[in-house]
Design a protein that fits this description.
By secondary structure, the protein is mainly α. The protein folds into 2 domains: 45 residues, Ubiquitin-like (UB roll), CATH 3.10.20; 249 residues, Up-down Bundle (Receptor-associated Protein), CATH 1.20.81.30. Helix content is 76%, strand content 6%. Strands 2-1-3 form a 3-stranded antiparallel β-sheet. Helix 13 packs antiparallel against helix 14 and helix 14 packs antiparallel against helix 15. The chain is elongated, with a radius of gyration of 30 Å. The termini are far apart. 32% of the residues are buried.
């Protein structure tokens, strides 16, 4: 089967567009006429267009679409009409292509969730499963509202995660750049001055150490660059392997200062996602599998899948979570209380709210802690270099004055 792009006129004279899978153009024409549409243009879809669909769509576009779609469904508009309005309203051309394709498939008789499933890069497994649960339960508008809230909180968590990762990386890059400038350009200039002044033979020990470090850096700079690039390539390669990714993800959760922040973000994401799925009627085993795939950390994913396996054997959730030693005891105890009271989804939402606030505090605390460390590190390095470079000048000046 091939995919065709079509344009057709409705009985009202309205021009409609979409895509359709069919064996040939006559089959497309027959289907369109069956939908009381008069074809005006049918063209086989280029393979390059298939690569465009599902890319270039931001999560904020999906959130906006979900909120508007929920409002229209709640107002009683048909799904096809909602999609038609929204695909013409969005400013994102890639997202408009996706929505037109979804609309065309719904018009052909596919369910809304199955049509969304064609674009996994835009609508992930969590989104599709919740929509499917909403269709089955007849509460699609409610599910879409929950999805919009969930994705808004996901955007916030993603922003916090970037803040937790980007800031330390920026500090390290700035420190490395300052150190490179000092070793590569500033210190060699002072060394030339000392030689011209004739004080190169009896330099203070601190000055000799700094100059030796500068000479080593300049002499072996190509090796440092090649070695750094090789190390970076090795890390990237190792990260792409299952064992390597697990190793780095374990380190991420245990590293001082940043590790606790990343763990709190993981807990917030786990509880928010699982709570949203359970409150929407998704079976717990299916929900656990979806949550594991969206965990973002291999260690967390394995812990969730281990708990899922134990739940499938008839055990409750709290005990396996405690066995993994990944989730904080407070989280496990609250999950246990939620299971006992039959309000697990509500309890998970409360845990998520608490940890999202904790993430805000933790990121702010980490930032305030890194700032003085950065100032001390860069300031201390510059201070040591200045002292080392000015000590010989003071000594030479004293000798000149004595003579």
């Amino acid at each position: 089967m091939a995919e065709f792009v079509w344009e057709a006129r409705a009985r009202t004279g309205e021009l409609r567009k979409g895509t359709m899978e069919a064996d040939d153009e006559p089959a497309v024409q027959a289907r369109l006429r069956g939908q009381q549409l008069m074809p005006t243009k049918i063209k086989k879809k280029a393979s390059a267009l298939n690569f465009k669909i599902g890319t270039g769509v931001d999560l904020r576009d999906v959130v906006t679409f979900t909120r508007l779609f929920a409002t229209m469904i709640d107002a009683g508009l048909p799904i096809v009409q909602c999609l038609d309005i929204l695909c013409n309203q969005t400013d994102n051309k890639h997202f408009a292509l996706v929505l037109r394709d979804v609309k065309a498939n719904v018009e052909q008789g596919a369910t809304f969730s199955d049509s969304l499933k064609r674009h996994p890069k835009v609508f992930d497994q969590l989104y599709v499963n919740l929509v499917q649960a909403g269709e089955v339960g007849g509460i699609l508008d409610t599910i879409l509202q929950r999805l919009a809230v969930y994705n808004e909180k996901a955007i916030k968590l993603r922003r916090q995660l970037k803040g937790a990762m980007v800031y330390p990386s920026a500090v390290l890059i700035i420190f490395t750049a300052v150190l490179g400038v000092l070793l590569g350009w500033v210190i060699p200039s002072f060394k030339t001055v000392f030689k011209d002044l004739g004080g190169d033979d009896a330099l203070p020990w601190l000055t000799q150490v700094v100059i030796a470090a500068s000479e080593t850096f300049v002499s072996y700079l190509p090796f440092f660059v090649v070695g750094g690039l090789a190390a970076a390539a090795a890390i990237v390669y190792a990260y792409r392997t299952p064992k390597g990714k697990k190793f780095f993800h374990t380190i991420f959760l245990k590293v001082p200062i940043m590790g606790p922040v990343l763990r709190k973000i993981a807990v917030a994401r786990f509880t928010r996602t699982l709570g949203t799925l359970l409150s929407s009627g998704v079976p717990i085993l299916d929900a656990m599998e979806i949550v594991a795939k969206t965990a973002g950390n291999v260690v967390i994913e394995e812990a969730i899948m281990y708990s899922r396996a134990k739940i499938s054997e008839g055990k409750n959730m709290a005990a396996p979570l405690m066995e993994t030693n990944v989730f904080p005891p407070m989280v496990v105890q609250m999950v246990g209380v939620g299971e006992q009271t039959g309000a697990l989804d509500s309890m998970l939402g409360k845990i998520a709210d608490f940890y999202e606030e904790e993430v805000d505090v933790a990121v702010a605390a980490m930032t305030s802690l890194i700032e003085p460390i950065m100032m001390v590190g860069i300031g201390g390095t510059v201070g040591v270099v200045l002292i080392a470079m000015y000590l010989p000048i003071f000594s030479i000046a004293g000798k000149i004055k004595a003579n």
